[in-house]
Known about the structure:
158 residues, Aspartate Aminotransferase, domain 1
Amino acid sequence: MKQSANAVSTESPAKQVAGFIAKFDSKVALRIRAVRASLRKRFPTAHELVYDNYNFFVIGFCATERSSDCLVSMVANAKGVGLSFYYGATLPDPGKILLGSGNQNRFIRLESAATLAKPEVEALLRAAAAQAKTPLRASGQRLTIVRAVAVKQRPRRN
């Protein structure tokens, strides 16, 4: 695990992430942990870029330490958890499950980690990995890098 130079904490990234998740209601925190575990299993060599911003808690699963090499991000706020596709506008979406209308990003809401196993979501995850400008490494150790922690944040609990 790696500590970002931008992070102000001397805690390990694992402790920081646990603290960020602890800010949420127990049901949302449980979903965050389950979704993260599932994405870590699916993308074992992806770097995790962590942002605890004003609006959202985000963990990007990236091919490198650059956010532009992000395949997919888990995004959470007090209302729930979602999956954001950095280049979602160019993904094939025959099931029409992607939400959003911007030039680049698309997302889906995750009722549970089991949503990740739905065929249409699996297909999106495969397509996101396949279209990545920088492919994931075949082997290697994952890095968890805390990139940003906002001092002022929206409440993480309802």
